[in-house]
Amino acid sequence: PRLELDESFTSKDDIASAVLGQLRDVMKDYGYEIIKSLVTDLNPDIKVKTSMNEINASKRLKEAASHKAEADKVRQVKAAEAEAEARYLSGLGVARQRKAIVQGLQSSVSEFSDDVKGASPKDVMDIVLL
């Protein structure tokens, strides 16, 4: 065989041209002229067809597995990015909360030292830390 079976299905016109060339030469000696040669259908053995179907199915399964793995990879990357963003935003929230606590403490110390005569901010902090 000059062609693989898969190639023969895709190159029917090439096969028809080759058959036409050979038949013209042979039949000319007998007084016949071959005008056209048609290859309309290739019909391999049922075992060959079954084997080809299994090969094609296997290729499709392999391609599907590859696409599924790529989708899983994208899913994992996106989940990791989302988790990192959530942790970042959580950190911002904690930082703002701590900043508010410090500002509230500063305000309280300042008001307490203003309201109580003779109390310095250091005295107020000493009382708070007790």
How does the SSE layout of this entry go?
Blueprint: H1 5-10, H2 12-28, H3 46-115, H4 121-129
Helix pairs in contact: 3-4
Give a description of the structure.
With 130 residues, the protein is mostly helical. It is built from 4 helices and no strands. Helix 3 packs across helix 4. The longest helix is centred in the middle third of the chain and has 70 residues, at 46-115. The model has no long low-confidence stretch (mean pLDDT 89).
Key words describing this protein structure:
mainly alpha, 130 residues, rod-shaped
- Protein structure class: mainly alpha
Report strand %: under 5%
Number of strands: 0
| C-alpha-based Rg, rounded | 43 Å
Question: What is the N-to-C order of secondary-structure elements (H for helix, E for strand)?
Answer: HHHH
Q: Give the overall pLDDT as a whole number.
A: 89
Largest sheet: none
Beginning-to-end CA distance, first to last residue: 98 Å
Q: In terms of per-residue confidence, which ranges show pLDDT below 50 for 5 or more consecutive residues?
A: none
Global geometry: rod-shaped
How helix-rich are the residues, as a percent range?
over 70%
Number of helices: 4
